[in-house]
Amino acid sequence: MKLTVVGCSPAWPNPGEAQSGYVVESEGTGRLLLDCGPGVLGRLRLAHEWPDIDAIAITHFHLDHWGDLVPWVWGTLAGPGRVPERPELIAPPGGREKLSDLAVRLGGFDDMFERVFRVREFTEGESLEVVGLELLPLRVPHYRLESYGFRVSNGDRSLAYSGDSGPSDALAELARDVDLFVCEATLDDEEPDLRGHLTVPEAEEAFEASGAKRLLLTHRPNERATDPRFELASEGLEIAF
């Protein structure tokens, strides 16, 4: 399998960088984009006039994880994205209704996402086949918003992606024995009340409990130092495993 980091900035973007977007692919499969935050579409267009993406899976509906679905719509309907095969859009439970509501609130039309994507909702804890890969969504805590982490496998290799998460035993289960664990580490200090993100030690703790082989920290603000013994995501990073 191969992971390409398209964007990895936290909720406030690091200077000049895109927010969450990670391409997963394997020989004989399609290209799966995990999350599609602001800036991701433009980065993908550096390689192709229009992104060579077969499916997009969204962990949750905070803007930094889905926002570039909106320009993706306009680029498809009125720009260079008029491709014959619509990509799949894998959304959280209730996602079809949520997307329709967001479309209207943003001044669009209620079925604009359905016109551009083949929308399918996942069910928590149930695996589904997406472009030849197996995707397992597991619920993780992220303030009061429904949020998920993803486990992706080609039957031989696997990775886990935390999405946005506070501390939870679900993270160790999500990443159990995977080859690569892409885990957010936004914070330096623990949040005082309702948890929505991880510190670096908390990400390391989840990694060690999971038995995963490799840890890649992501969603990390530039302003916060990271111990050099940890591998940190950066735009354009490619990892084959």
List keywords for this structure.
single chain; 241 residues; alpha/beta; six-stranded mixed sheet; 7 helices; 13 strands; 22% helix; globular
Rg on CA atoms, Å? 17 Å
Task: Report the uncertain regions.
Answer: none
Task: Summarize the amount of helix as a percent range.
Answer: 10-25%
Sketch the major β-sheet: 7 strands, mixed
Query: Based on helices, strands and strand pairing, what is the structural class?
Result: alpha/beta
**Strand neighbour order, sheet with most strands:** 6-5-4-3-2-1-13
- The rounded distance between the terminal residues' Cα atoms is 6 Å
Beta strand count: 13
Elements, N to C (H/E): EEEHEHHEHHEEEEEHEHEE
Count, helices: 7
Commentary on this structure:
This protein is of the alpha/beta class and 241 residues long. The chain contains seven helices and 13 strands. Strands 6-5-4-3-2-1-13 form a seven-stranded mixed sheet. It has a six-stranded mixed sheet with strand order 7-8-9-10-11-12. Strand 2 and strand 3 form a beta hairpin. The longest helix has 11 residues. The protein is globular. It starts with a strand and ends with a strand. The mean pLDDT is 97.
